[in-house]
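Handoff note, outgoing to incoming analyst
You'll be picking up this chain. Sequence as last confirmed:
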Amino acid sequence: MSVRASADLADAAITGLVLAGGEGRRMGGADKGLQLFDGRPLVQCVLERLRPQVDAVLISANRNLERYAGFGCAVVQDALPGFAGPLAGLQAAMAQAD
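Most recent structure output, in case you need it:
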């Protein structure tokens, strides 16, 4: 990486993304991000690790939107109908990110 590219990267605002929009088929339809881990929702554990590393965080979710918004992040939904998979969440987040 060149010195210029390194400087550009250092000045860039970085947005993190939590993909929480899945169907949870392998978990009986449970919303994985809201499942408890050590007594806390899994998404909370992820956010605690991610926030110090980025300038902003988005959560991609297709259900329980109000609960996810309660974690203090913007919540984006897939633009495609149904549960189109993680790339649909990434597409929605890229359209929303600064």
